[in-house]
Here is the input.
Amino acid sequence: MMWRDRLDAGRALAGALTEYKGRNAVVIGLPRGGVVVAAPVAEALGAPLDVRFAKKIGAPGHEELAIGAVTSSGMRVLHEDLLRQMMLPPGYIEQATEEARQTAHAREQDLRGLRPPEPLKGRIVILVDDGIATGMTMFAAIAEVATEDPAEIVVAAPVIAPQTAEGLASRVDRVVALAQPIEFMAVGQFYHDFRQTEDAEVRALLSGAAHGA
Here is the structure.
């Protein structure tokens, strides 16, 4: 299964979430690409669109290898299986966590602007990304959202690696994926157009979306 671009994937994903229309839902996109996918979902459900930023914590010398992730508020998750196989310098995790948290906080503030976060207590929270491979940033976002006492947490993405989907299912009320291909190498392989999403596009989508609906 392939999609033309993130907006195309978002429209398809919205079709799998129609049952949440009119049910006091909040749609939260994970930047940057997840916000683009989340926008058509929020529009279709008549729900507000919000953003939460989680930053990967990279391994020393291999920043793209996620040993964990942390949100702007400091909620952290670690890849315990991976960490057991590594010898990290003393204090590395705490230092890398704080650096990632500061980056996440600055980035979220920049994208959100003056808009306060949507209140989540008692609401259905739909966390959206453009695709989920290892899922570290999504796990961190779930952990943060769970502290705000939502009625239900749903994770939704056009494509999710099967093993990751199993892990997500143990932490949320529902996982919605249009595809869970066994041969999953990278999220971009499922899009014809997977160019990097710019901050300006994310800001425009957030400012143009329903807020407080």
